[in-house]
Design brief:
It contains seven helices and 22 strands. It is an alpha+beta fold. Strands 12, 15, 18, 19, 20, 21 and 22 form a seven-stranded mixed beta sheet that branches. Strand 1 and strand 2 form a beta hairpin. The termini are far apart.
């Protein structure tokens, strides 16, 4: 934000990852309303996080240049504020009512006054509370320090409503901001009854990026290996309690991250980006970890993986995933990824291919569901081995690559190093 004449310019954050565009989700003030210094003024939504733009000073919002739902470029001018000194608290000056003010007003501030906790509310939580006219004091917070999470609000929304008083007429449930009116019931089998759910800004941008990556940018090729996880499970059983005492939940994803680091050292071009003149290979490994949340898929970044032990990896992964699911990630948390891991097996998937590469990265690693499988073991001389069937804990690992960057043999070398690290895990 910068000054111009006597007014102050309100601009979108300029420090964003290359190629990132935002959508102006909502103005939290109308033209003519007063705003306190550092009070949230705008919510911007990218395909990764919701970002608040705060007022640079106490004053009155005099001009709105970008409307809600419009695309916003980094550093773009959004509006102007006329500074006013000594504004103790925001208050409304006579101003026209915006067309968008038909919804419940946004919850001011970043905390839940009078609620069972005083932890700040994330933008995503405040938006849900506002859209569904919920009092934060009525929502039980399950996050750290009683913080209200997106999941808490969704549970409150889904909770059965109290029965109406006897004899009272039924009232139709209101249509939410994301659900469009249902079509009329139809007896025509060619056109069954249905309802429409509007695409969120996040979903539309994810869709655009997926199409751009797969169809217009990188030729995708996927290779598949099977991983014997017996050694990892034995190690985790021996050390789970120790890690818990040291403040870390020892998940399989932590092992996958460390094994990916071993594989990147064997095949450095997996941790790179393609340019028109050269392949830029990163010396730092910033691991993106695909995480499912109530609002869609986000990819928080575990920075400098090459400097982390298994314990530190587990501890930082737990923190990142927790904040992702609470809607509390910052732009810095999702910026600068050089390689991505998608542990889709946590939701039951055996195999997913291809997993779309987040641009401008060159590869993405996928891990399927861990399950017991029958495996043939051959022992003895190669010409006449003795074979037996045993049960092993296994999962499928896939590496989807940008075929411009590497060929199948290098992808196979990556997965060979990855699976050997996991199968031979030792203290």
């Amino acid at each position: 934000m910068s000054g111009a004449a006597s007014s102050l310019e309100v601009r979108a954050p300029a420090a964003q990852e290359e190629g990132t565009r935002s959508q102006l989700l909502r103005w939290l003030k109308a033209v003519g309303e007063r705003v306190a210094e550092h009070e949230p003024l705008i919510e911007l939504e990218t395909d990764k996080v919701t970002v608040e733009v705060a007022s640079p000073a106490a004053g009155v919002l005099t001009e709105i240049l970008k409307q809600e739902q419009e695309e916003v470029a980094p550093g773009e001018l959004l509006g102007r504020i006329e500074p006013v000194t000594a504004i103790a608290a925001p208050e409304t000056v006579a101003a026209p009512i915006r067309a968008t003010d038909t919804a419940a007003p946004p919850i001011p501030g970043g905390t839940a006054p009078g609620s069972r906790n005083s932890a700040p509310l994330s933008p995503a939580v405040r938006r849900l509370l506002s859209e569904h006219a919920l009092d934060p004091a009525a929502v039980h917070g399950s996050g750290e320090g009683g913080r209200i999470t997106v999941a808490d609000v969704m549970r409150e929304i889904a909770a059965p409503q109290q029965s109406a008083a006897p004899g009272a007429a039924a009232v139709a449930a209101p249509v939410t901001g994301s659900e469009l009116p249902r079509t009329a019931d139809s007896t025509d089998p060619e056109r069954p009854a249905s309802h429409r759910v509007a695409h969120s800004a996040v979903r539309k941008r994810i869709a655009a990026r997926m199409v751009e990556s797969l169809l217009h940018t990188a030729p995708h090729v996927t290779t598949v290996f099977e991983v014997d996880m017996g050694a990892v499970l034995a190690h985790r059983e021996r050390h789970r309690e120790e890690f818990a005492h040291r403040g870390a939940v020892l998940t399989l994803t932590a092992y996958f991250a460390q094994a990916a680091l071993t594989a990147i050292r064997a095949v450095p071009e997996a941790n790179s980006r393609w340019t028109d003149t050269a392949l830029e290979i990163y010396d730092t490994v910033n691991l993106g970890v695909a995480t499912a949340t109530e609002e869609g898929l986000v990819v928080p970044v575990l920075a400098h993986l090459e400097s982390l032990s298994l314990l530190e990896t587990a501890r930082r992964l737990e923190e990142l995933v927790r904040r992702a699911r609470e809607g509390a990630l910052t732009p810095a948390d999702v910026r600068g990824g050089t390689f991505t891991l998608s542990n889709h097996g946590v939701s039951g998937s055996l195999l997913a291919a291809p997993i779309i590469i987040p641009q401008p990265q060159s590869a993405i690693l996928g891990l399927g569901k861990l399950e017991r499988r029958a495996v043939v073991i051959a022992e003895g001389p190669e010409e006449d081995p003795e074979e037996r069937i045993v049960a092993r804990s296994c999962c499928y690992a896939t590496l989807t690559i940008d075929h411009r960057v590497m060929d199948g043999s290098r992808a196979n070398r990556f997965l060979q190093a990855f699976t050997e690290r996991l199968a031979g895990w030792k203290d």
